[in-house]
Design a protein that fits this description.
Layout (H helix, E strand, L loop, with lengths): L2 H18 L12 E7 L4 E10 L2 E10 L2 H14 L4 H15 L23 H20 L2
Antiparallel strand pairs: 1-2, 2-3
Helix pairs in contact: 1-2, 2-4, 3-4
Family: Belongs to the NifU family.
Protein name: Nitrogen fixation protein NifU
Pfam family, one: NifU_N
Length: 145
Amino acid sequence: MSFNNNLDQLYRSVIMDHYKKPRNKGSLDGDSVTIDMNNPTCGDRIHLTLKINDGIVEDAKFDGEGCSISMSSASMMTEVIKGKKQEEALELAQIFSNMMLGQDYTDKYDLGDVEALQGVSKFPARIKCATLAWKAMEKGVSEQK
């Protein structure tokens, strides 16, 4: 088996792990930002709640329905933005967008499991699935600036 096949298999395993055991699933009570978005072309939908205090994303939770790419991306996104400044969360969204477009992206941040989604860029029909949660987060963080 070649290195690329092993890497693809690892990435698939990471994506399926987040899909089957999502991190930060649920919603936040109290003073939080709520964003609902959907992808009408495939039926993915997300309900994202963010707790932002003093310019920091303190917590993030999501709920929704969708394919493994959409739901695992939401799980990964909530993990990577927690504790980040709003500007950093928006910068991470741009980095992710660049990754989905097959462009070079900075390694300024440790993207962790998010990097497992870079193969989605080879499947244009799935890019909207992967970016849905990120677009919701961008909207929520921008509204709180």
